[in-house]
Amino acid sequence: MGLFSRWRRGGGSGVGSGGQRQVLDREGGPADLEHLRAFAKSREGVAFYVEPETTATDTTVVAVAFDGEWTRRRVGTPRAAEKLARSVKVACHDVTVTGYPPEMRRWNARAKADRAALEEMARAETDDERDR
Length: 132
Description:
This protein is of the alpha+beta class. It has helices spanning 30-42, 78-88, 95-98, 102-131, and strands at 47-51, 59-64, 70-76, 91-94.
């Protein structure tokens, strides 16, 4: 599979010879919206951070809870993100303006430390088994 094989072939206008337009690696769908909805309803203090579309990915939303736990899903457009935020009654921010919340960075640091501790425990168990 080539680097750009996920793109349908086409001209600069975005329309291929078969009338197909170029598509992203995967567009946001109902399952993505439902995941964000469920995350927002099951956690305290959730806010949405809208990330802009890139050449490879649709517009995404990072939903961040008050403790920094987060999830990211494609939503299609910024307008869809805002509509979803209104429906679940959470704040919606443009991440290019506000940046990510510090709670998210702390969550990531804790998760990394937890993974390292688990890996160390697994190595110690393996070493103990070898010594027996």
